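Weekly modeling sync, notes
Attendees: S.R. (lead), two postdocs, one rotation student

Agenda item 3: backlog of single-chain predictions. S.R. asked that every request posted to the team notebook include the full sequence so nobody has to chase files. The rotation student volunteered to paste the first one in as an example of the format we agreed on. Action items at the bottom.

Example entry:
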Amino acid sequence: MALTKQDIAERICSQLGFPKKQSTEITENLLELIKSTLSAGDDVLVSGFGKFCVREKNERKGRNPATGKDLMLRPRRVVTFKCSGQLRNKVNGK
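Predicted structure, as returned to the notebook:
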């Protein structure tokens, strides 16, 4: 089961004692801050969690899987995530 924005807001509410409306606003504002930082081309580093990076991808050849027709894919930016060693150890039960 995936962790949703609503789940995060509820945990902020129950664990930190904020009212539900304020917890929802905190969650929304945090995610908007991350999105705006990434869209500006900057990286987001969360110590002990990981780093979100924006990478530039060049134009490249691709193929339409439905028709098999070759085409050129436009240059674009993508977001990558590299987890921290602490997160990796926690996920692996170390």
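Discussion: group reviewed the output briefly. Residues 12 and 40 are 28 Å apart (CA to CA).
Action items: rotation student to repeat for the remaining queue; S.R. to check formatting next week.
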